[in-house]
Amino acid sequence: MTDPMPAGRGRRRLAARCRRITEDSSFGMAVFVVILLNAALMGAETYSGLARTHRQALGIAEECCLALFTLEMLLRIGSFTDRPKAFFRDPWNVFDLVIVASAFVPLLRENTTVLRLLRLARVLRTARFLPHLRILLVAVGRSLPGTASFLFVGALVLYVYAMVGWVCFAESDPQHYGSIGRASLTLFLLTTLDGLTDAVRAGLQISRFSIVYYASYALLASFVLVNVLIGVVLNSLDEAREMEAEDKRARDRAEGANDPAGEVRERIVAARMALDDLEASLADVPSSPVAGNREKGRERELESAV
Fold it and tell me: What is the pLDDT of residues 14-30, one digit of tens each?
């Protein structure tokens, strides 16, 4: 009677089978198509006439998409049964799990607005299957601290120039500089250089020195600060590319290291089981008379030698 298969070996085998499915290119393409279909269904529901006419068909299609997403999530979870903690180390796995599982929460399913927002969040899952989009999203996330500093400096510059504009142009141009709020809004719109020509002409009618005011603001706000923001984003983009490349190298090393080790472990387990069976079978076999005579002859030779 053979021993039952160890639990660890069964989990590894299940994980290997699920991993072969999830890592196949056709599987990723199929999930990507389902995500796009889900987005198209949401767009179709915005047309009231179409939604009323085909309400039942749209509902069935949405349930089919949810079932496919659930099956995909179960396969991805199954591919990590041999190392469950590794599943939660990947933020994309956690994001996918939250988005899919939220569709089964009773309170969320009853709230139409929240449910639509959660369905809309599924569109962001396309980043998993588009590496360049994933890099851009990671770059945006990493640029947030630098962007916050940029916004603080930009707000400070805008406030200072707005106060100067209120002091210099409030009486002559109250429509644009009558208060700190109006002045800030005017200068914020001038950041894109749209309407700067008209503003300079209106300022020259008030004072010739207004050209210094507008030129310095355009140089500082539209060129220096914007270029600083672009530099922050580009730096974050390079970091995101390096992180993606490092993650890919780490996955390749893990796959290269885990697969041979798993095969060796399975062979060791099979060899141990075979040795146990062989030892048990040898213990049940009685010793033959010829072997007994040989052992007695060896004992006499040893005694005569002594």
Answer: 888 888 888 888 888 88
Judge whether 28 and 129 are in contact, CB under 8 Å. Answer: yes
Has residue 56 got a pLDDT over 80? yes
**Cα angle 40, 46, 52; round to 5:** 105
What is the pTM assigned to this prediction? 0.55
Q: Give me the chain's average pLDDT, please.
A: 78
Between CA 244 and CA 147 the distance in angstroms is 22
Burial environment of residue 82 by CB neighbours within 10 A (0 to 12, 13 to 18, 19 or more): buried
Separation of CA 44 from chain center: 27
Name which residue leads in pLDDT, 254 or 242: 242
- 107 or 200: whose pLDDT is higher? 200
Percentage of the chain lying above the pLDDT 70 cut = 82
Q: Which of 74, 128, 87, 122 is nearest to 102 (CA)?
A: 122
Match 């298969």 to its residue by tokens: 5
Dihedral (C-alpha) 90, 92, 93, 94: value to the nearest 10 degrees?
Answer: 90
The region, left, alpha or beta by phi > 0 then psi within -120 to 50, assigned to residue 258 is alpha
Alpha carbon distance, N-terminus to C-terminus of the chain: 47
Start-end of H helices in the chain: 7-22, 25-45, 48-53, 55-78, 84-89, 91-101, 106-110, 112-121, 126-129, 131-142, 144-169, 174-177, 180-190, 196-206, 210-217, 226-284, 289-305
